[in-house]
Amino acid sequence: MKASAKNNNSYVIFYLKCLLFSYILTVGLLLFLALFLYRFGLSEKTVSIAIIFIYIAASLFAGFLSGKKMGTRKFLWGLLAGVLYFTILLCVSLAIDHGAAGISGNLVTVFLICGGSGMLGGMLG
């Protein structure tokens, strides 16, 4: 029984590391986007598209890492990584905005993007 609990803890720690790496990637890409926005005066539509690509890249990365580590049912582990990425993203957005007004219109779309990208990353892993 203790070996199983230790194994479960290692999976939790692994997923936390995957999410940490994906959020480090997100921060880096957002800083790069901010530099481009400052330097070239990008339009709002371009920035929105870039943010969607950042969500895709970060979820794909987390799904890839989790699929590579788990070995079997990679798509499910990748989906879980994408959903966890979205969940943290949602919690941070709710904490900053003090409500869902800012994300309510895109909530389902961002969920599907993160989940699908994580699943694809898991399959590639």
Q: What spatial form do the alpha-carbon principal axes imply? A: globular
What does the largest sheet look like? none
Structural class: mainly alpha
- Distance between the ends: 30 Å
Radius of gyration: 16 Å
Helicity range of the residues? over 70%
Number of helices: 4
Helix and strand string, N-terminal first?
HHHH
Write down how many β-strands occur, each being a DSSP E stretch of 2 or more residues: 0
**How confident overall, as mean pLDDT?**
88
Our estimate of the beta-strand percent is under 5%
Can you tell me the residue ranges where pLDDT is under 50 for at least 5 consecutive residues? Answer: none
Can you give a write-up of this model?
With 125 residues, the chain is mostly helical. It is built from 4 helices and no strands. It is globular and about 50 Å long. The relative contact order is 0.16. The mean pLDDT is 88.
Question: Descriptors for this entry?
Answer:
125 residues, mainly alpha, 4 helices
Quick description:
By secondary structure, this protein is mostly helical. The protein has helices at 2-40, 44-70, 74-97, 107-124.
Fold blueprint:
Layout: H1 2-40, H2 44-70, H3 74-97, H4 107-124
